[in-house]
Amino acid sequence: MTITQWIFLFLLLNLVHFGGTFRLYKVAGKNPYLAIIPFYNLIVHLKIIHRPKWWVILFFLPTINLIMLGVLWVETLKIFGKAKTSDILLGLITFGLYIYTVNYSKKIEYAQSINRSKRSSMAETFSSIIFAVIVATIVHNYFIQPYIIPTGSLEKSLLVGDFLLVSKFHYGSRIPTTAVSLPLVHDTLPLIKKRSYLKNPQYPYIRLPRLQKVERNDIVVFNWPADTVRRFFVAEARVNKPLDKKSNYVKRCVALPGDTLEIINGFVHIDGKKNKLPDRAKIQLPYQLFNSNGVSSKSLTDSGIKGFNRKYRIDNITQSTFQALQSEILYTTGNSYSDFTVITSEKGLSGQLVSSLGLQGREILERVKTVFLTPEEAQTLANAEWLDSIEQKINSDKNPNTTFFPNTIPFDWNEDNFGPIIIPKKGTTVTLTSKNRPLYKKLIIDYEHNTLESGDFGFRINGQNTNQYTFKQNYYWMMGDNRHRSEDSRFWGFVPEDHIVGKPIFIWFSIENFTEGVRNWKIRWNRVFTTISGKGEAKSYFPYFIGLIVLWQVMAFILKRRKKGWLQKEKK
């Protein structure tokens, strides 16, 4: 909606409010014409229902204002003698219009004061729930929001099953742009899997003042610009969602506005220099291990290597035994009874299960095995006696493709060799050419809301012939640390500044095997209550937290005993 449309809607709502409350204002001893004065009528109305003035703030916070409207309707009905359950339901179902029947009734009752201490237990419970939802929504929208890492794109920096607390205020909290949305859910209602919001109307984009800028190599939560899914891991057609309802991603920001980025053999270079990552960043790249007798899975596991696959040949598979094994199998190769091979994770097949099913299986040791390692792990394995050699697996093919950004031929970039590309910066001007048009087309049209035409006449932006364009906002380049298992900016391009959500600051809980069912869950105690950024290895502060709780309980017990002793002395 445009500003003009919002102003018109706001004035219309004030007229509706006046039409349904002016007689109520008069009965309450207020000038009835105050009901039509924008903003001030809300302050007067709060006085009438005996509620504090500071509630006005809540009516101008997106999402929360919808809850407060319901509270306002209910409180108005109650103060004017309509406190029955049927009255409350009618007030909510009619979106407050039921108040008109009270306003135009012959006899209007008004309670000059109200004793809230005599409310029923149900009313107290309902009020407590509403208060809790409002507080939680304020914290969720403007301060701290919990997230769970669902994929391994940042493995081993952040792990699948890490429960994060993400700061909204470090980079400046965004005011929600979706006007009508249920609180405390993102874009989908749990269980019923339906949309939790209305696409229209939309508020303009506003971001509150920030504590810091996004810095190079920060881990950042942002809305996925590509916006092609409503739910993770579910194949479906494109879903066009409002800005604040786009899918949430978490990656590392490897390039800032104005940087020139180039990926050379898997390593990021900024302005011609290799990017220096922080202590806790653990990038993973594919390496090929060579052993003429086959690479030992046990040796890999004993070396602390995870995330590799194992291959098993099964000679007597049947449909029933295959179904029994499915939970441990990633995929299969071979299409006949005599040639059937299964691929598993590094955990392999359960020997006990294989034996109980009467299967004849053996692991196939590959002479050349691809594993994903940090450069430090690769350096360690290079000295291992059980390996002949190790080398980084690099995609050197320079074939024109549509897989990698800008997803247009003749660009021939890939995951290991990409660019150079300049990250757009607010206020900088670019000269458009037929060569760089694919890089900036989406920014100009989708993110900065212009029209862009090209042809024999050159370029036309918003109907004006020009080959110059000045960017209206900053852009960033986001990548996963698990470089060959991350869908990131290499695939869909720049992340606009208005898509930035927040900064992960804390891991408050962590579950191993998070995607493998509750029975397989294990708590990673060494990751509970750890900070995400900082120098050196992450350290768990969970023991200190437990110590504070114990100390608090001891202090409370001592104070309680002392208070009891004082009371006994006073009685004597």
Give a quick summary of the entry:
By secondary structure, this protein is α+β, with helices and mostly antiparallel strands. It has helices at residues 3-27, 40-48, 55-58, 64-79, 85-93, 99-103, 121-142, 297-302, 319-325, 351-356, 375-381, 437-447, 489-492, 542-571, and strands at residues 144-148, 162-167, 219-223, 248-255, 260-264, 267-270, 273-274, 285-290, 310-314, 331-336, 339-344, 361-364, 368-373, 389-392, 418-422, 429-431, 452-455, 458-461, 464-465, 468-470, 475-479, 495-496, 500-512, 522-523, 530-531. The protein is globular, with a radius of gyration of 31 Å.
* Helix run count: 14
Unreliable segments of 5+ consecutive residues:
229-235
**How many DSSP E strands?**
25
Structural class: alpha+beta
Mean residue pLDDT = 89
- Outline: globular
Amount of helix: 25-40%
Proportion in β-strands: 15-25%
User: Major sheet: size, sense and barrel closure?
Assistant: 9 strands, antiparallel
